[in-house]
C-alpha cells in the first residue's frame, strides 16, 4: 500500500455533506466525498463515470489550521429582472489549512499523483468559488496513511502559529476499520451523477498528535501580571 498526501489551503473552503437547496453548510474539515471528487476531476472523470476505484481508498485528514466560519448571503434575479430566485445562505471555512490523504494500491496512487500534477479539470476546495492557494500534491509514501499524516510537518501559517500555545494538539480524522467504534457519516460516494447522487456510510475515528510550536508568542498564563501585579 502507498499513501498520497495533499495540502488543502485557500482563502475559502466549503465541504458540504448533506445540505441542499437554499442553505449550503460546510463541515469542519474536508469530506471524503469532496476530496475524492477533487481526485476524480484531476483524472478527468465525468460525474457519470464509475468511482469504485476511488471509493475503496482509505481516507484521512489532519486539521493544521481550523479557520473560521464565514456566512455568505446571496440574492439572485434573472437577467431581465422579472424573476427572483430564492434567498440562500452559503457557509465557508475562511483561512483553513488541512493535510488530507488517501491510501491504496501503488499503481493507483501513482496515477493520482500524476493527475494532480497535470489535472484534466480545474481543481477547487469543495466549491468552484474556492481555488487552492498552493499546489495540492505534497508527497507519496510507502508508509501507512496514518504514519504519513503523523510524520508530515505542520502546515499552519506563521501568523496562526504565533497565536497558539508552545505545544499544539492537531486533530486527525481517519476511516475506521471494521468493528472499530466511531462516528458514522454518509460520505462515501457511489455516484456523482446529478440525476441520482448516492453515498454510503463510513466510520470516522478521531485521534490527536502533539507538535512543538517554537513560533508561539504565548509565554504562560500569569493572572497577576494581567492585573498589573508582578
From TrEMBL:
Coiled coil: none annotated. It holds the Pfam family Cas_Cas5d. The keyword Manganese does not apply. The keyword Glycosyltransferase does not apply. Keywords: Antiviral defense. CDD domains: Cas5_I-E. This is Type I-E CRISPR-associated protein Cas5/CasD. The gene is cas5e.
Amino acid at each position: 500500500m502507498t499513501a498520497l498526501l495533499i495540502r488543502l489551503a485557500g482563502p475559502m473552503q466549503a465541504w458540504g455533506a448533506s445540505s441542499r437547496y437554499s442553505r449550503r453548510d460546510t463541515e469542519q474539515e474536508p469530506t471524503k466525498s469532496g476530496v475524492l471528487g477533487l481526485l476524480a476531476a484531476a483524472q478527468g472523470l465525468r460525474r457519470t463515470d464509475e468511482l469504485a476505484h476511488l471509493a475503496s481508498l482509505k481516507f484521512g485528514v489532519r486539521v493544521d489550521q481550523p479557520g473560521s466560519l464565514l456566512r455568505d448571503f446571496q440574492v439572485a434575479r434573472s437577467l431581465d429582472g422579472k424573476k427572483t430566485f430564492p434567498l440562500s445562505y452559503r457557509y465557508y471555512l475562511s483561512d483553513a489549512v488541512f493535510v488530507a490523504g488517501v491510501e491504496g494500491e501503488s499503481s493507483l496512487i501513482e496515477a493520482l499523483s500524476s493527475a494532480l500534477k497535470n489535472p484534466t479539470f480545474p481543481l477547487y476546495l469543495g466549491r468552484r468559488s474556492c481555488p487552492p492557494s498552493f499546489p495540492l500534491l505534497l508527497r507519496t509514501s510507502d508508509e501507512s496513511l496514518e504514519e504519513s499524516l503523523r510524520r508530515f510537518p505542520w502546515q499552519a501559517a506563521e501568523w496562526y502559529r504565533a497565536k497558539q500555545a508552545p505545544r499544539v494538539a492537531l486533530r486527525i480524522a481517519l476511516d475506521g476499520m471494521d468493528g472499530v467504534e466511531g462516528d458514522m457519516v454518509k460520505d462515501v460516494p457511489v455516484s456523482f451523477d446529478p440525476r441520482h447522487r448516492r453515498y454510503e456510510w463510513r466510520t470516522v475515528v478521531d485521534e490527536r498528535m502533539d507538535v512543538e510550536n517554537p513560533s508561539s508568542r504565548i509565554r504562560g498564563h500569569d493572572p497577576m501580571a494581567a492585573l498589573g501585579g508582578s
